[in-house]
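chain below, 299 aa
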Amino acid sequence: MSLLRRYASITLAMSAMVGAASAAGGVQSTPYDQAIARDARHEAWKVVGGKEAIEGSAPWQVSLGVSRIADPAHAHFCGGSIIAPTWVMTAAHCVTRLTPDKLLIVAGSNRLQGNLVRHAVKRIIVHPGFNASSMDKDIALLELAEPLPLGAHLHAIGLPSLKDEKGLLLKQAQLTVTGWGATVEDGAAVVTLRVLGVPLVPRRSCNRALAYDGAISINMICAGFVAGGADACQGDSGGPLTIVAAPGIDSGAKRTPTLAGIVSWGDGCAHADKVGVYTRVAKFTAWAGACIAGGAGCR
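prediction:
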């Protein structure tokens, strides 16, 4: 089976968009490599459609940037989520083969513009089970050199247990994905965080022959519009897919945003039957906790 892998960003696409994907099995540049190449060509990315996020509405969202590129909008190559004062969760494919000195984190602002504080990374932990071919277990942790100044406009997002997830990922659940995503077009650089609401798609539907034909593992979540037209596309892998327990649902889960998924992969962008695929965070909450605690389970 040949899938077009795409590194994702938030966009509302009413037509087919130019992607940076290649056929599975072929050589594909990483989001980090793509950011460097784009900056060298003096190209800017432009978001097609979408909705600007309200300032402070996603205080856990961070931007991963190439450390040697000064402009934060051009340096941006992936998203991530704050899960503790010194820890960020992102996609494994964003940081595999990178060393901590290659990237810096921007947090606390919806706009990748101006004199933003950039935070150094101390350690990168890629999940040992990550498979770059199947994109299974596409999750990684970044330990920061110094704690982030958490407060009202900058704070961590909660991680769900498998029990929590049962009360959250219900049929017709509505999720939210955010990022500084783009498609490669002429236009102004992307500087403002975007937001898109997407419905949950059952794994069975996502694994249909016309969809992903069995490629969706138990470590993945599908979300998006089966009819196409809106999706998470090129540029913002690693970013958060969040959910809040629906009013009136006695799920036991808190009525606060929870990190349900991590933007991971898909086939093209906004194509019918090809919704976005996200890492299923609940399957890795225990692993992340072990890593933060410095326990033996972090391997």
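Residues 31-40 form the longest helix (10 residues). Residues 8-27+158-283 form a domain with the Thrombin, subunit H fold (CATH 2.40.10.10).
thats it, cya
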